[in-house]
Amino acid sequence: MYPIFRMLYQLNKHRKAPALAIDGTHISHHICWPHDLDPWMELNNGRTLTLYDLGRLPFSKRIPLGNALKDRQWGMTLAGNTLRYRRRIRMFDRIEMRTRAIGRDARFVYLQQSMWVKGEAASSGIFRAAIVDKNGIVPTDEVVKQMGIPDWNPRMPDWVNAWIAAEAIRVWPPET
Predict the structure, then answer these.
(1) What is the CA radius of gyration of the chain?
(2) For a FRET experiment, which of 109, 135, 136, 148 has its CA 20 to 30 Å from that of 32?
(3) Hey, what domains does the chain have and what are their CATH numbers?
(4) Interior angle at CA 141, CA 138 and CA 146, nearest 5
(5) How many Å apart are CA 33 and CA 113, to the nearest integer?
(6) pLDDT tens figures, 138-165
(7) Which of 49, 48, 63 is nearest to 104 (CA)?
(8) What does the pLDDT read at residue 173?
(9) What letter does residue 17 receive in the DSSP assignment?
(10) Nearest to residue 102, comparing CAs of 110, 92, 94?
(11) Pairwise CA distance, residues 115 & 22, whole Å
(12) Per DSSP, which regions of 32-163 are E strands?
């Protein structure tokens, strides 16, 4: 079940947080609760993705994207991600999550998120987000223009470009 109350808590907690520049980092704090665990008593991988939602949503409201989404009645959806796990997150661990935008191409905005426990990186992911309206994906040129930062187009790290290239040659639909 989606943790709607946790999401509302995070949105409320950060509702008066100062605006962030598009290249700023949103920091949020979470706890790994018993219902977040898998049979091996660590944070479930599916719940990890859900908790990353709880960082992206307040982040999008703090950067100029939040107003653009509201003004244009756009939505934001994930179009892909990859995660790397390096440290177990156990019950009642306190998690610091960091969320930041790292670039864009013609269709997607790329975000990096990470979870930290006791000062050590536990997981990190790259997320490809699409801004959508009733007709489909909104080109990012239009999105950044609406955000008031039409020139925002930083050079993405090589590892992100390599991931984008790998995704471009990935077979779709999946072989049966």
Answers:
(1) 17
(2) 109
(3) 4-14+22-169 (3.10.129.10)
(4) 80
(5) 20
(6) 999 999 999 999 999 999 999 999 999 9
(7) 63
(8) 94
(9) S
(10) 110
(11) 20
(12) 75-85, 94-104, 109-117, 120-133, 136-137
